[in-house]
Amino acid sequence: MSTTAANLSDTYRHKGLRRALLQKLREMGIADERVLDAMDRVPRHHFMDDAFVHFAYDNKAFRIGAGQTISHPYTVARQTELLGLEPGAKVLEIGTGSGYQCAVLVAMGFKVHSIERQKALFDRTTPFLKQQGYRAHCYYGDGYKGKPAFAPFDGILVTCGAPRIPEALLGQLAVGGRLIIPLDDPEAGEGKQTMTEVRRMDEETFTRRTHGTFAFVPMLAARSGAQG
Ligand code: SAH
Predict the structure, then answer these.
(1) Domains along the chain with CATH numbers
(2) I want to staple 159 with a disulfide (CB 3.0 to 4.6 A). Which of 23, 54, 95, 223 is the partner?
């Protein structure tokens, strides 16, 4: 994440690079212009370590410290698009990380709740998002448990590769809502996941669709001391 005032500028050059990236995302198949518009309004370079800001508008994932990464722009765009939600919807994100995906969700006009299991990232990202004016509710805790106090959610977006669908997240989905989760898939390859959409049709019925192969850092169990 950027720490100096100079890096928190958003120059014409940055804006130009961002427009070019968005064009590339269109060519890659992102069709929801609202998602692209939200990404246009969030300077991705603000969420990256100073050493990497020059690469902020390449379509790549980067390390953000604590062994974690900021997702590929295509991945952020695709997951946001798959939520299929309107402004005002209530969304739960699992894996706050750098806060970039969270900021894009806020820019979409969603009411955003986000959980991070690593204290160091939580402590760094929560005040950063606030300082940059992105209004989101951030929690230090275990994403496997979701956030029952604020359920049901119109959408739940998991930004780490999960070994299975956490039961608690299904229960916290509103009827008609979607869970977008990258699921470990041996057929996709080691360390790869299949993007999975689970839609709640009614209290008991869930449907499932898949959307291709992606690569995420693993979803891990909570460390002792993390609050649910
Ligand atoms: N959305 C982030 C992506 C960060 S990478 C961004 O835009 O930068 C995935 C994040 O998920 C990491 O920060 C990791 O610490 C977090 N994570 C892993 N397991 C988790 C769990 N069980 N609960 C909550 N967060 C988790």
Answers:
(1) 5-214 (3.40.50.150)
(2) 95
Q: Cα(22) to centroid of ligand 1, in Å?
A: 24
Sheet holding 173-184, edge to edge: 136-140, 111-116, 90-94, 153-158, 173-184, 193-200, 206-214
Model confidence at 12, pLDDT cuts 50, 70, 90, reads: very high
d(CA 73, CA 60): 7
Q: Does residue 95 have its Cβ closer than 6 Å to ligand 1? A: yes
Is 114 among the catalytic positions? no
142 lines ligand 1 (CB under 6 A): yes
Between the CA of residue 227 and those of 5, 91, 117, what are the distances in Å? 33, 20, 9
Give the single-character DSSP code of 30: -
Q: Is the pLDDT of residue 44 over 90?
A: yes
Check if 219 has its Cβ closer than 6 Å to any atom of ligand 1. Answer: yes
pLDDT at residue number 71: 87
Of the residues 2, 71, 98, 114, only one is catalytic, namely 71
β-pair partners for 101: none
Higher-scoring residue by pLDDT: 7, 14 = 14
Q: What is the pLDDT of residue 67?
A: 66
- pLDDT tens per residue across span 127-180: 999 999 999 999 999 999 999 999 999 999 999 999 999 999 999 999 999 999
